[in-house]
Amino acid sequence: MATVAHEVGIKKNYLTAIKEAIYEEMGLNPGLISIGEDIGILGGAFGVTEGLQAQYGTQRVIDAPISEAAIVGTAVGMALQGKAVMAEMQFIDFISCGFDQIVNNMATYHYRTAGEVALNVTLRGPAGAYGGGALYHSQMNEAWFAHSPGIKVVCPSTPSDAKGLMKTALRDPNPVLFYEIKELYRLRDIEEELPEGDVTVPFGQASVRRAGKDITLVSYGQTVYHCLKAADILAEQGLEAEIIDLRTLVPLDEESIKSSISKTNRVLVVNEAPKTCGFAGELVARINEIAFEHLDAPALRLTRMDTPVPWAKPLELFVLPSVNQIVELAQRLIRY
Amino acid sequence: MATVAHEVGIKKNYLTAIKEAIYEEMGLNPGLISIGEDIGILGGAFGVTEGLQAQYGTQRVIDAPISEAAIVGTAVGMALQGKAVMAEMQFIDFISCGFDQIVNNMATYHYRTAGEVALNVTLRGPAGAYGGGALYHSQMNEAWFAHSPGIKVVCPSTPSDAKGLMKTALRDPNPVLFYEIKELYRLRDIEEELPEGDVTVPFGQASVRRAGKDITLVSYGQTVYHCLKAADILAEQGLEAEIIDLRTLVPLDEESIKSSISKTNRVLVVNEAPKTCGFAGELVARINEIAFEHLDAPALRLTRMDTPVPWAKPLELFVLPSVNQIVELAQRLIRY
Amino acid sequence: MTLTPTASSAKSKAADAAPGEQRLPRTLLTPEDHLEILKQLYLARYFDVRLIKEKKRGRLRGTLYSSHNQEAVLVGSLFGLKSTDWISPIHRDMPAFFMKDLRSGWDNPDRRAMSIEEVCAQVWCKSGSPGRARDNWSHIGKKSAGIIHSTSMLAGTIPVAAGVAYADRLDGGDAVILTYNGEGSTAQGVFHEAINFAAVHKLPVVTIIENNHWAYGTPTHLEYPLQDFARRADGYGIPGSIADGQDVFDVYDKVMEAVDYARSGKGPSIVECKTFRAYGHGDHDDDRAAKYRPVEEVERGRNRDPIAVCKSYLVEKGYLTNAEAEKYKAENKSAGETTDEDFPPEVVAYLKRGVDFALKSPDPSPEEGGMWVFREGA
Amino acid sequence: MTLTPTASSAKSKAADAAPGEQRLPRTLLTPEDHLEILKQLYLARYFDVRLIKEKKRGRLRGTLYSSHNQEAVLVGSLFGLKSTDWISPIHRDMPAFFMKDLRSGWDNPDRRAMSIEEVCAQVWCKSGSPGRARDNWSHIGKKSAGIIHSTSMLAGTIPVAAGVAYADRLDGGDAVILTYNGEGSTAQGVFHEAINFAAVHKLPVVTIIENNHWAYGTPTHLEYPLQDFARRADGYGIPGSIADGQDVFDVYDKVMEAVDYARSGKGPSIVECKTFRAYGHGDHDDDRAAKYRPVEEVERGRNRDPIAVCKSYLVEKGYLTNAEAEKYKAENKSAGETTDEDFPPEVVAYLKRGVDFALKSPDPSPEEGGMWVFREGA
Ligand SMILES: Cc1ncc(C[n+]2csc(CCOP(=O)(O)OP(=O)(O)O)c2C)c(N)n1
Ligand SMILES: Cc1ncc(C[n+]2csc(CCOP(=O)(O)OP(=O)(O)O)c2C)c(N)n1
Ligand SMILES: [Mg+2]
Ligand SMILES: [Mg+2]
What we know:
Chain A is α/β, with parallel strands linked by helices.
C-alpha cells in the first residue's frame, strides 16, 4: 500500500502514523482483527482505516452495527479465543455506551482468572476538545479508565510516538485504551519523518519535550503544545520550563516526573479534562507522594473547568486551559 | 406506616433512616416517583423500599425491568416532565450499565439547556466493600461521577446524616448520586435516635466526627469508622486525630478541610476506592491548592490498591485500607 | 390552539375520499391541509438547501446532516400531532424543531415548537437560541415546546420519551411522544431497553425509524439481518408498520395510525419510513459518500423526490393544477441547483426572518461557559 | 474424546424411536444415554442440595442462587454438545461448570470442563480453583475448558460468546457457543446488541432463556409484554423455540435443533425453557420469596420435578423398571428433606471428591490480592 509504506525524507502527520501502525501490525499478525463502526467500507470517520478492509478482507476488518457494548464485548470474546483486537470507537465520547463491558468485563478478566486470560484488545478513538465538537465530540474521559484497574491508558502527542505506541498497544497482551487527539490528526506543524522499520515506543516512559530548570510542566496529548507555547513565552522572560509529555498514563513514568521536579522544585500539571477527579489531580497526588520534599511551591494543576465542553467558540475557550493561563501560573509558582 | 413513623427514644439503623426519608418525601411530594428493579413487590434487595408500593401504589413505585439505561433514561424523562424521581440501582456496581444516560444525558441537561431544564433525579444504591461482595457487589465508583460535571455526589456514614441527606437529595433540583454503604445498613453499633420532624442535612457541609490537633483524617462512608478506630489507637499514644466526614463530595466543603489542616498541619485522606484517579487523589490535589502553606508534611492518601475487590477474605482485606495502615501512616506523618 | 386530528373530531372537515382510501387518516384532511403539507415540504427543503449553501461558504460552525430528500418523513409525521404532543428529533431532523405544531399557524405565537428565529440562532451559534449555543445545532430542544433534547448518543432519547409519556399519563395528559431514529441507531442497547419498557407499560411512544439505507458508511445488511426494520417491533409484541418515506401522505397515514393507537392507550409502536439520503452522512462526507454508495442507488433515490411525489398526488386529486405544480420547481435538484425562485415566497421569507434574527443575535459571552452546571439556590 | 451427537454420526447408536418422535434429536440417543441423563439430573440436584445445606450451616461465603428444579435445562442443553463447544453459565447455572462435556466420561481427564474439584474449591473460597477465589463462585469459568466467565452484569456474556464464535469460525472451528440467561436478563441492552450482531454475522450462538417466571422479586409481565420470551427472537429474524424446561428430553430436542442449526452455519437462535425456581432468588431471599410468590404457583412448579418427569419417561420407554425408578427418591423434596440415600452412590461419591479437595485446598494468600491486574512481561 503506497499510502503506508515507509518513505525516507517524507514528513507524515499524526493520523498517517497511526494508520501505518495499524496496517503494519495487521500485516505482521494474522491473528489481529479490527472492528468498529464504519471502519471498513468507509475507512473510518477520520480515515484512519482507509483501505484496510480492501487489504485485509471483510473477515478481519469488521463494519460493526452501532453497538458499542457489542463491539467491546465481541472484542473480549475474540481475544478470549486468542485473537488480538483493534476496536475503534468512532468518537471516544461514545465509549460511555460500552462502558460496562470495558470496566467490568474487559478490564478485570485477567485479575478474575488469576492470570489465565489476558485480553489483547486495543480500544482507540478520536478524542479531545478545542475543535468546536461540543459536548459529545470533545471528551477526554481517560480518568474513568485510569480509575478502572486493568486497563493501560495511552495518549501520544507526536506522529512518531503515535505510531510507536500504537504498535506497542496492538502487541500488548493487556487491554489498552488509546486516546488519539483528533485536532492533531492532520496538524501540519507537528508532521515529522517517522523512524524507519519496525520501531515501537514502550509504555511507561515519558518524553522530555523541552529541558528547563525553573519549573516542570507535566502534560500529555493536546495540552503538550499549549505547554510548549507557554515555554516559549516564559523563555522570553528568562524562565526555563521543562516539559514532560507522559505518553502513557497507566503505567505512569513516576521516575521522569520525580527527577525533573528534583531539579526544578516546581510543577504545574496541565490537562484538558474536567478538574474534579481528573488525571491532573492524580498527578498532583502522586507528586506529593514521590517528590514532596523537592517542592518549593504547591504542585498545581490547570484543567478544564468542571463543565462539559460547550459548542460556541468563546464558551469553549473559556472553560479550557489556555497558553496564557499556563504562563501566569508558571510565573506565580516560580515566584512562590 | 408503623415501620417508618418517628419514635422518640428508639434507635434506628442506617437503612431505616433512608427508608424513613423516602417514605416521608413520597408522602410530602405527590410528584415524587420511585423506580428500580424489585423495589415494589419485593421491597428492594435490601428492603429499603419495603412497603412503599403498598403505600403509594404501583404507578408511583415502579418495578422496572433489568434495564439500567432505561431506568435512568425514563427518570430523566419523568423529571423533564416535572416529576422528582428516586431511581434505585440494585447494587451501585450495576450503574455501569446505565452509564451513558447518567454522564451524557442526565448530568448535562441543565448545562446544555442554559438552565431551562433541571432534573430532580436521585440515583441511589448500596455500595462499598469489606463484605465479601467480590468484584461486582463491592464497588465505590463515585469518582467516575465526580468527574462528570453536573452531578452531586453524596455518601453518608450515619443514620441521621443518611436520612437528612436523602431528604435533601430528593428535593434538590439537580441530579444526585447517593452512595449508601450496605455494610452500614444494619450495623448495630451506629444506630442512633433520629432527629424529630422534617430535618434535612444540607449538601456541602462536612461533619467533624472527632476533634484533634495532631493530624486531620479526611474520609466518608465506611472508612470514617476505620478512621475513628485508628483515632482511638492513636489517642492511646497521646496523638489526637481530627476526623472529617465529608458527607457530600460534590459540592465539597473545602472550608472545613482547610480550617482543620490549618490547625493540625497534617492530613491523611482515607478512601476505599482504587487509588488512581479516585476521590482521594482529588482531595490531595485540592488540599494542595487550598492549604499548602499549612502543611508540615505531604498530604497523603490511603486507598484501595489499584485492583478490583477480590472475593476471598484474605484477598479482600489485603487490597483495602485497614485501621493499622491508618495508624501507621498517621504516625509517620506526625513524625515527618 | 390545539389540533385534534383524530378521526372523530376531524370528521366534519374531511375531504372527499377515493373509495380505496376510505379508512385512511388522510381522508380526513381538507384540500387546504393537502396544500399546506406541500408548502411544509418546501419549507423543510428550503431550510436544508439554505444551510448547505451557508455551510459551503464556511459560515457555519457545525456539521450538517442534511435531511434533503427525507422531508416527507418529517412533515408527514408531524402534521397530525396535537400541540401538547412531544417529539425528539435527532441529527438528521433539524426542520422538525420549527415545524412541530406548524399546522396551528406559522405565525401563531402560542405554537408549541421552537421558532424559526430560535433555530437559526442556534445554527449560527448565537445566544438568541434557548440553548445559547452551548450544544451543537442538531442537539437542540425546548421543554416548554415539547421537544426533547438529544445527546449525540444515538437512540438515547427513547427512554426519555418513555419517561415523559409515563409522567404525562400520570398527570392525566394524553400526549403522544414521537421519537426519530436512523435505522442504524436501532442497534443500540438503549433502543431495546426503552422500547421494552414502553411496551410493558403501554406507553404512548411512537418510534419512527428513518431507514435511509445507510448508517454513515455502513449499509443496512451489516446493521440488521432483515430488510424491514419495522420487524424490530415483533420482538416486543408491538405493531410495526412500514411507510413509503418519499410519500408524505403514506407517512401521515402510518404515523397517524400509530399515534391514534398510542393515544387510545394501546401502547407503543414502530413506524419504519423507507427513505433515501441525498448526500453524504454529513457535509464532510459528501465526497467520500460518492465513492462508497453505488451510483444506481443514488439515482433511484433522486428519482423519488418527496416534493415531486406530493405534487403528482395533489394534481391527481385535483387540489393543484398542472400549472400551479410547475410554479415552484425545487424537486429533483441538488441544493446547489436550486434558487429562491424554486420555492414559494412565504417559505423564503419565513426562513429569512430566522436568519436575520440569527445574524443580529450576539455571541454568547465567554463566562457563560462556566454557568448552569447546576441549578443554583436549591 | 469428542462426541459428535449430530444426526449422521450418531445414527448407528439410535434407540428405537416411537413413531411420533421420528425426527427428534432424542431418537438418536441410546438407552444408556437416557440413563446417563437421569444420573446427571441427580448429580445437578445433589450439588445444589449439598450447597443449600452447607450454606445453611454457615460454611459458605457466597450467596447461593439455587438451580433446584431447573436442572433439566442444564442437563438437557449440555448433553448434546461437542467437547469443543463453549458455554457461558450464569448465577443460577453452577452445575454447568462441571457438567459440561460430562458425556465424555465423568472421570475422563481430558474432559473439556471444570472438574468437580475445581468448582468445589471455588465454592469453598479456596486457592485450588482456577480463579483462586478472586471472584464469587457463580462467576467462574475456564478458558481452556470452553467456559466463559460471567461478570455479575446480566446478559454481559452474550457479546463475548459472539466474539468467541466469530474468532473460532475464522480459525476454521465449528464450535457452538451456548449462553444461559434468566428471562429477566433479556431486558438488558447488551442482550440486544449482541444478538443483533450475532444475527448479522450468522454466528453459532445459542441463547438459552431460562424462564423461571421471576426475576428476583419481579414477575415476567413487568419485564416483558409477552408471555413467551422466545418471541424476542422475532425482532432479529432468528428462530425462537420453546421447551418444557422440566422435561430434560424436550430441552435436549430443542437445544440440539438450535445447536445443529448454528453449527451448520445458519446462525444464532433462542431457546426458551419454561421452568420453575424452587426457592428464593438467592438463599437470602427464601423467606421473602415465600411472601411475594403466590402459593399456587409454587405448588404448580413443585409438582413438576424434572427428575420425576424424566423417570416416568424412562419407565414409559422401558429403559427403567418401576422398581429401579423407586430406588432413589430425590424428586419432589425440598433440599432439607433429602438425604444421601436419595441419590445414586456414584453421584454422592463424585461430589465428595470435590468437597474433600476443597476442604484441603489452602486459602489464597493475601498478597495474591495485589497480583494479576496486568499480564506482566508484555
Ligand atoms: C452511540 C453512538 N455511536 C456512534 C455514533 C456516531 N454516529 C453518528 S450518526 C451515525 C450513523 C447513524 O446512522 P442512522 O442511525 O442510520 O441515521 P442516519 O444518519 O442515516 O440518519 C453514527 C455511527 C453516535 N452518534 N452515537
Ligand atoms: C445489569 C444487572 N442489573 C441488576 C442485577 C441484579 N440482579 C441479579 S440477578 C437478578 C434477577 C435475574 O432474573 P433472571 O434474569 O430472570 O434470572 P433468574 O435469577 O430468575 O435465574 C437481578 C436483578 C445484575 N446482576 N445485573
Ligand atoms: Mg440511516
Ligand atoms: Mg428468572
